[in-house]
Amino acid sequence: MNLTVNGMARSFDGDPEMPLLWYLRDELGLTGAKFGCGAGLCGACVVHIDGVASFSCVTPMTVADGSQVVTIEGLSPDGTHPVQAAWQELNVAQCGYCQAGQIMQAAALLAETPAPTDEDIDSAMSQNICRCGTYPRIRAAIKRAAGQEAR
Amino acid sequence: MAALENVSRRAVLLGLGAGALVLSLGLPSLAQEPEEPLKFGADAMPNGWRDDPRIFISIDPDGTVTVTVHRSEMGQGVRTSIAMAIADELEADWNRVRVAQAQADEPTFGNQDTDGSRSLRHFFEPMRRAGAAARLMLREAAADEWSVPVEEVVAENHVLSHAASGKQAGYGDMAARAAEGEVPARETLVLKSPDRFRYIGREDVGLIDNPGIVTGTAIYGMDAKAEGMLFAVVARPPVVGGRAVSHDAEAAMKVPGVQRVVMIDPPPQPSEFQPLGGVAVIATNTWAAMRGRDALNIRWEDGPHGTYDSEAFKAELEQAARSTDGTVVRNQGDALAALQTAQRRVEAEYYIPHLAQAPMEAPAALAMIRDGRCEVWACVQAPQVTRVRIAEKLGLPPEAVTVNVTLLGGGFGRKSKPDFAIEAALLSREMDGAPVKVVWTRDDDLHHSFYHTVSVERLEARLDDSGRPVAWLHRTAAPTIGSIFAPDPMQKLPFELGMGLTNMPLDIPNVRAENPKAQAHTRIGWYRSVSNIPHAFAIQSFIAELAHEAGRDHRDYLLDVIGPARKIDPTELGDVWNYGEDPARYPVDTGRLRRVIETVTEAAGWGRDMPARRALGLAAHYSFVSYVAVVAEVEVDETGEVRIPVAHIAIDCGPHVNPDRIRSQMEGAVIMGSGQALMSQITFAQGRAQQNNFDSYPVPRMDTAPREIHVHLVGGEDYGQPLGGVGEPGLPPVTPAIINAIFAATGQRIRRLPVGNQLSS
Ligand code: FES
Ligand code: FES
Predict the structure, then answer these.
(1) Considering only CB atoms, which chain B residues are within 8 Å of A129?
(2) What CA–CA distances, in Å, run from B320 to B16, B17, B469, B525, B687?
(3) Whole-angstrom Cα distance, residue B226 to residue B220?
(4) Any idea what the CATH number is for the domain that residue B280 is in?
(5) Using a 6 Å cutoff on CB, does residue A55 contact ligand 1?
(6) What is the number of structural domains in chain B?
(7) pTM of the model
(8) CB contact under 8 A, B256 and A15
(9) ipTM
(10) Which residue among B350, B400, B402, B431 has the highest number of C-beta atoms inside a 10 angstrom radius?
(11) Which residues of chain B are within 8 Å of residue A64 when distances are taken between CB atoms?
């Protein structure tokens, strides 16, 4: 199986059923995408597969085969994507564990919907859990990032 | 090592009732000799506190200041806040401040148990002193070098200067020389006056871990790596005290990548922080280990708790709460006699289920053993006990065990128990010391927590003609955390009772509190704010019920029942614990409780007209020596669906070191409390936790969480005042505020948590 991860060509010949999350974390050592539930229920593991926010914990390698994968480590070269910048400005994170997934989900939302309504934010971001309870700041940061992108 | 002795001593302590001081939330604390003066606060914690700048501060030749933080970061912002305290007194430029995480080493760093909302309460002053001492040492070095009096050397914002000679140097230039100097005596240090603070008390300092978090490079326990690392998952007995009687190791070994299948013996009960035992599968990646585990086909023997059933246990607790043979834990006036008259007597029972902390990062730890030393990386709240327990298990001295504390992806009390780190050490030993990372799945986390207890709280009151309570009886029946340390005492320990029950400060002449027996059938542990959850829920719901019965406005009634502003000695109420703090320094101050209520109700527009099925609800609670009040605005639709468009929360926690993190803790508390009110619970059937993942254990999400949260910081102007806790005290009043709002909106009183579909009939 061949795929591109953060711009680098990769090949894999292990268990084709292995979820992309474990390939990224255990084989490539890219631990930015997190393990939260392993069942598509929490969003901690969200990465972009061909630009689409996806739960890497339930995406088998056979499905990732041939795709372009971007993880939080590859979202921007230096952490300055508007979503990352807004997250820092508003100090969104508490423990931070969910935030890679939140940021990847939000970045995909804004790529698709540059000026999201509260309903848009609800429907995209409700796929991600933050046990620390940072939702109000996530919402505010998405709006801030959207403003920056419009400028 | 002290912790070790403490636990065995605790068995003795348990029988002593009110005399048994449990000063530490994290671990049972020292029994104090009667002739010793009582110790409080950080002094009373195992290994106390340190303020030597050489322990906590290093300065590189290029001027970079590294602050070593000895408390665990789990989202409360402690790495930022401790660095703020030190950098401020050091007069360091924030942009040149880094943090390093201390390894487990309490004899060096002082107490490291990150729980009980104590980090800044106990270390703000010592850390300020460390910063001030380092600053003085830099000035002395410069004075020495320039041959001028130290009084004339100014240290400001990373620059040392001498006005008369025009000499200047950076901190880095003087660091080596300063390090050779004497550490100034504590008494000679002059701390900054608050009007000169650069960082303390400011909202705009930012989070020191932001860059790592937003780029995915921050390392949590789950992310620990080592060369040649193996990955393990463990199938643990689904019932506490159970064991695997057979398993199919061969089937697991057939999964490509699986290296070994290892039995872990279950510990004797009660098992404190020991791993539960079971069957481990070790593989070259996590996925292979999980698939191997699926193939094990284990037959379990359940042991005595195999019949634990939440519905049946609820009935048991109710029966206990209705019995009259509980231990009297507070008695003032004669509540029983005053309750005798049938006139205006109100009673209610509240049920608060088990909860799992469910930190977003499930437990995970990496361990390796080499040359007689064990090195561990783990997301632990209690590094020292982790070190000591692993050393015991491996038969090594504690000095041969290094525990590196990673970031914690949430803790909430779960990671105060190092069972998962001990597992990693055991499995590394099985693999001849190879690095092994133990990964807990969400199922593992929900099935093998140290759960928040389950409670029935029964309250009875009699009202006088004005509707004010003249008698108050509170019975609390719940398994105790003590059951993990010693043969189940079946009754709450003083620290559990002191979480809102015995120290309840209402102005009522006849008050009685009783604690009937309740047996533990699973591991009970700390969960953010602990026994304050059931106590606050019951008391604050009941006051709202009484206000309704009396036909009075809930806010006015609550203030009336709290009574006038006064400072109460908690020991007079029957609380010998007082969060480990000196009752003279930390009395229960009803004036501060009143003020948060007044603040939050005013901000929320208490008393305004609301549309149908929409209402405000109020609750207030004192815990972790801080005062919090909450007003929740709820809307209940025709189908019984509850939304919380707005919540206000006010906290008085004394001086505000890091206001932005106080706000974020309050926001998080409101959201976590809304989950406890509306959706989350752990139930048992046949001894097994029934919830497997976030589908059956729902927690708030973006669309179900309270939408707008307004945090009001009250008080805190006087930095001479002692600090209160922040991480936990926000939580207890949230749930009753929501439940009270639901009553106001619908007329339906919820006495059993969570609400679930109770409103949809
Ligand atoms: S870990 Fe993938 S959705 Fe939770
Ligand atoms: S910040 Fe901790 S889970 Fe979201």
Answers:
(1) 360, 694, 699, 701
(2) 22, 19, 24, 21, 21
(3) 14
(4) 3.30.365.10
(5) yes
(6) 4
(7) 0.95
(8) yes
(9) 0.98
(10) B350
(11) none
